[in-house]
Design a protein that fits this description.
10 helices; Rossmann fold; 2 domains
Length: 293
């Protein structure tokens, strides 16, 4: 995989911005490959007529005002960092914020887009889902909840042995090398209860676990080729909750700082290309940063 050189941080002029700026700087301190941060904001008006009335009353262009406001918020954080990365502020005026941010990620070759995950703050996750669906293939999405701490000491990579989870695990292994964090994998296996009576499902668990362990050994061999060695995997049998909830419970119990999950690709039939587990994790009130690769 390509080194992570450039990241794009999405700001929205709310109290979440201060948190995201600090988180992005901390990420740059841990991932030495990062050379530049773009801080992006899209100005979107619900009513064009009302917007024009407001713009006519301003002393200078609204874009310039927003740029100055963002710079005033960003500079104090950079002043506290020794040898900080270069940064640039990007402001757009488009009808769709996800489309504007995806275009910026593409035109500036951002390997990672960072957005806030508003759990306590008021905010909708629908824009995040739309952004994920239209991001360029070379760009990953990091969702940072305001309840999380800016550190990466433990990384969890859920795997289903697919190509998407292999790509995600390679990214997780890259972050392990960059940050010195511990990396663990998890595989959740289950049989839908409406196919078999519960007693039969329980009887099948040992054989299913053995099959999962066999598939993991083959999967891990492929990871060795990209330097992802010495990985361990937890096998979680799930019979009464969703796979995403099992992952969340395990991540909370083991004090993970980051979950790295694969999607099935982007573009085309957008509603069908994001893996169901990845989508569930994006939409869940997850208190841990989530990286969708």
């Amino acid at each position: 995989m390509r080194p992570l050189k450039t990241i794009l941080v999405c700001l929205d002029l709310t109290e979440m911005d201060d948190f995201l700026i600090r988180h992005a700087l901390h990420l740059c301190e841990q991932v030495e490959d990062i050379e530049k941060i773009y801080f992006a904001h899209n100005i979107r008006f619900e009513d064009a007529d009302d917007a024009q009335d407001l713009l006519d009353q301003l002393d200078k262009p609204l874009r310039a005002i927003v740029e100055d406001t963002l710079d005033e918020a960003i500079q104090p954080h950079f002043a506290t960092v020794v040898d900080p990365p270069a940064y640039e502020i990007l402001v757009r005026e488009e009808s769709s914020s996800p489309a504007a941010l995806a275009e910026l990620a593409d035109s500036h070759q951002a390997g990672l887009v960072v957005v806030g995950k508003k759990i306590a703050f008021k905010g909708s996750g629908m824009a995040v889902v739309k952004l994920l669906r239209i991001l360029p293939a070379h760009t990953s999405l990091l969702l940072v909840p305001e309840t999380s701490r800016p550190q990466i000491r433990n990384i969890l990579a859920p795997v289903d042995f697919s190509k998407a989870s292999k790509v995600a695990t390679e990214m997780a292994a890259y972050l392990r090398r960059q940050t010195g964090a511990e990396l663990h994998c998890q595989h959740v296996f289950s049989i839908p209860s409406f196919y078999f009576p519960s007693i039969m499902v329980n009887d099948l668990e040992p054989s299913m676990r053995q099959e999962a362990q066999k598939r993991w050994r083959e999967f891990a061999k492929g990871l060795h080729q990209v330097g992802a060695i010495d990985l361990d995997c937890t096998f979680s049998f799930n019979s009464d909750t969703s796979i995403s909830q099992t992952i969340t419970d395990h991540a909370n119990m083991t004090h993970q700082d980051l979950i790295v999950v694969g999607s099935k690709g982007r573009g085309g039939l957008a509603a069908f290309v994001i893996g169901s587990v990845a989508l569930q994790l994006v939409q869940a009130e997850l208190p841990i940063p989530l990286l969708v690769v």
